[in-house]
Every structure is written in C-alpha cells, then in structure tokens.
Amino acid sequence: MPKVWEFTKDQVKELESLSRTHPKAHVRMKALALCHLADGKRAAQAAEAVRVHRVSVGTWADRYLADGVDGLEVAEGRGRPSTVSAEELGSYLHQSPRAFGIDLTRWSLSALAEVVPCLKGMSPAGVKKALERCNFAYKRGQPHLHSPDPEYEAKKGQWIKL
Q: Which residues are CB-contacts of 154 (< 8 A; sequence separation ≥ 6)?
C-alpha cells in the first residue's frame, strides 16, 4: 500500500501560497507537487504533474513535514565543490596583468581565465561568477576621452553630459 502523507489545513494553505508566490522556482515546484499530495493524489501522480521521480516527491513531503518551508530549500553542501580558491584568486588580482606578460593595465575576465590556474578553461561569465562567489567585485574599465585642445571642454558640449 502506498504511503499517505497527512497535511493540516494551514499547511495546505501555506503550500498553495508557496506554489504561486515563492521567489525560488524549485521551491514553487516542490510546493506544487505537495499540493497534489494534499489533494489525495499518490506520489507517482504528483511526480508526473511536475515531471520528477515519485521518490523525490516523497522525500520533499517528509522534509516539509519535519522542517516546514526550510525543508523545501536546497540543502547546503549540495552540488560539485568549487575549485576556485579565494586566496589564490586574490593574490593574482592584487598584481598587474603586465607582471604575467599580458599587455593590459587592468584585468579582463578572459585574461584572468588565461592566467589564474583555478580559473583555467572558464568562460568570461564563469569567471565573473567565481569572482562574485569569492566576494570580489568586477567593474569593467571605462574609456577616458582626452584632447590636447585647450578649448575641448567648451567644444564637447552637452553630448558628453548625459
């Protein structure tokens, strides 16, 4: 006989609200599957509705009944561990790219991917994410316009002051 999970009326209301309004998509999906369970459907039917395995739905139900909404969040430590070392990355960032034979005055994302061993093979977007995870901010350099003309400031007009 399949396992039956019992939800209180307050839990059902909470799950319905979570399935519509929670900011994280994976929590909305889990809450929707649990709404199906609360409606009396079997785990296999609830799983089919959200396109996951029935065992996953049962695990979500057990975790929700034990831990509440926190049981629907992704647990810490899941996924592949990062190979990026914040200390190693910081040691490179505090040096000039020219020290590594790159003809730039500031680091670019692709230059970091070429030089820093723990970032080798990453795309620029991946390097940016790695910087953010290590609490480093990346700000792309802005071009600086300069003219030797002494009347340059008056001539450039309003177009530069957007």
A: none
How open is the CA angle 101-133-125, to the nearest 5 degrees? 60
What pLDDT is stored for residue 21 in this prediction?
A: 95
Q: What is the mean pLDDT of the chain?
A: 88
Q: How far is CA 103 from CA 71, 99, 127, in A?
A: 51, 9, 19
Summarize pLDDT for 87-140 with one digit per residue, the tens.
999 999 999 999 999 998 889 999 999 999 999 999 999 999 999 999 998 877
CA neighbor of 61 nearest in space, from 36, 78, 81: 36
**pTM score > 0.90 for this model?**
no
The rounded radius of gyration (Å) of the Cα atoms in the chain is: 26
- Given a contact cutoff of 8 angstroms between Cβ atoms, the answer to whether 84 and 119 are in contact is yes
Report yes or no: 127 and 119 within 8 Å, Cβ to Cβ. Answer: yes
Residues 6+ apart with CB under 8 A from 45: 36
